[in-house]
Amino acid sequence: MKESENTSTNFIKQIIDSDIESGKHETTYTRFPPEPNGFLHIGHAKAICLNFGIKASYNGKCNLRFDDTNPVKEEDTYVESIKKDVAWLGFEWNNLCYASDYFDQLYQWAEMLIQKGKAYVDEQSGEDISKQRTTPQEPGIESPYRNRPQEESLRLFREMKEGKHKDGSMVLRAKIDMTSPNMHLRDPIMYRILKKSHHRTGNKWKIYPNYDFAHGQSDYIEGITHSLCTLEFEVHRPLYDWFLDQIADPGKTRPRQIEFARLNLTYTIMSKRKLLELVEGKYVNGWDDPRIPTISGLRRRGYTPASIRLFSDRVGIAKRENTIDVGLLEWAVREDLNKISQRRLAVMDPLKVVITNYPENKSEELEAINNPEDLSAGKRTMPFSRELYIEQKDFMMDPPRKFYRLGPGREVRLRYGYFITCNDVIQDENGNVKELHCTYDPETKGGKSPDGRKVKGTIHWVSKPHAVPVEIRLYDRLFSVENPSDVPEGGDFKDNINPDSLVVNTALAEPSVKKIPPETHIQFERNGYFYVDPDTTDDNMVINETVPLRDSWSKKSKKK
Ligand code: ATP
Ligand code: MG
Fold it and tell me: Which residues pair with 507 in a beta bridge?
């Protein structure tokens, strides 16, 4: 496993350290700026951990800011889910902000730019505007409206605001440089007409600012020192700086944009658009389906905030695009769950065992440790009786030498129970094993050998009359290929969906499992980590598989 990122070695922290050393800033002020147009995913979690992690390291501040400049795709439900997710990850924002709170200020700055001759109203179609930008190798073509009188642009811009013009009939553009090799500087659009109701400002605005005219200005208004974003914004940086040059007061804190590589994971789709497609097309059961990498999906799967923070720390901060093995995320969750999960026994695929020398109407309570990693979790008891269940796969009719579990004539230890020896195998007419007849050694209570005799295997079990049925949802990867977006011409990422990503089974668990409340993590010994689903009712306990105990994925895929 990769060494933990030393807190002072990532390149962003080096920049911050030198800004503090030079006296440019006393401390840091960062922000996490999601667009409320979908649920957050593990990639966002990385950006959250980065921004709020800097706040913690430098005793700084961090805002949660909704970048809500596009009323078409944004909704309040997303706002609420995002707030919940950031808080769940364990972070506290200093201010809860909305880019829409700055619409008045942005509008004033836009008028100021028009008055300074640095912005104009263009009445061409979007298509013409983009055609005139041409290619980076050749100069663009200036709009015939580029040099119109400032008063005319100002009048039209005010009319746009008042709703006097149709959607798409005109836009406000910055007047920068139509010959720049950076396409973002070829007179970018600042405002467009959109007669859409906004989730916060209602019908007040008929025009909305574009991302580039809102983001840096919002950073500036909030006093952000380091504005961290993903690499695709690197080419926007000259524009970010150009707008700040126009509006920033030299006496005030000026934010600096720094880019880092977005997180990509094997076997995982992270784009909000594609996640939306999976949800709307019912390929998965909603935004919190445990198979998708949304924070709400991971939570429901049984991931913990600590495991996501650990993962994010191990991934580190890169300057170049890369793809992280999803196994690292699974490793991180095991690390945390190993410490916090109580252990229980449950049989996924039952095989009946009769202990022929155990009295018929007797049962006894055996003591079991709840968590060997945390003895403060205490002990519980498990009923033992004449009839038990073990896993089918813990018995073999003709076992190889290295198979230390049960076979005809073999002895095995029952976890927290006794040693048992298999004497008889009852088969049906097709040779399928129906039940085992075993004897137990009463001297081996608690699994201890009385005479030093060696029993290599320990298997889990439940008492048949006491066992409780629970619904188990077993998850495999949602995509069967490492890079689901890599599809041939005419293909679709959904073609790579694994048809067996969800298997629902009934398992038989020791009775104390019934007392575990929803949203609790458990380890079913030898089976994996599980999480009691919020769908659980008194009649039906639903339990999600979080992750197998060890990396068994490679085995799983070979089986197919
Ligand atoms: P997507 O590309 O998944 O639709 P987005 O970038 O459009 O996501 P935003 O809501 O704009 O989503 O993102 C909020 C913040 O999260 C931005 O600063 C963005 O750079 C960051 N972010 C988004 N995806 C990732 C990722 N995969 N890894 C790291 N940071 C990310
Ligand atoms: Mg975005």
Answer: 470
Which amino acids are annotated catalytic?
35, 262, 272
* Residue that has been written with the tokens 């309040």 in this structure: 76
Sheet holding 528-532, edge to edge: 342-344, 521-524, 528-532, 542-547, 468-475, 502-509, 346-347
Please work out whether the CB of residue 275 comes within 6 Å of at least one atom of ligand 1. no
Give pTM, 2 decimals.
Answer: 0.93
338 lies in the same domain as 351: no
Which of the 8 DSSP states describes residue 380?
A: E
Residue nearest to atom 18 of ligand 1 (CA): 229
Residue 15 lies in a domain: no
Note the residue count of the chain: 560
Strand-pair partners of 351: 390
Mean pLDDT of 537-555: 83
Asked if residue 229 has its Cβ within 6 Å of ligand 1, the reply is: yes
Distance CA 111, CA 542 (A): 58
Judge whether residue 356 has pLDDT over 50: yes
Q: What's the gap in Å between 372 CA and the centre of ligand 1? A: 40
Report whether residue 79 contacts ligand 1, using a CB cutoff of 6 Å: no
As a 3-state breakdown, the chain gives helix, strand, coil percent values, each rounded to 5, of: 35, 25, 45
**CA-derived radius of gyration, the chain:** 31
Residue 338's CB is within 10 A of a number of other CB atoms, namely 15
- Shared domain for 29 and 166, answered yes or no, is yes
Q: Smallest Cα–Cα separation from 119: which of 111, 108, 130?
A: 111
Tokens 């050749």, residue located: 138
**pLDDT number for residue 551:** 60
Instruction: Tell me the C-alpha distance between 238 and 177, whole Å.
Output: 12
- Return the CATH number at 374: 2.40.240.10
SS (H, E, C) 129-164: HHHHCCCCCCCCCCCCCCCCCHHHHHHHHHHHHHCC
pLDDT tens per residue across span 467-477: 999 999 999 99
Q: Is there a single domain that holds both residue 166 and residue 245?
A: yes
On whether the CB atoms of residues 544 and 290 are closer than 8 A, the answer is yes
First-to-last alpha carbon distance for the chain, in angstroms, is: 28
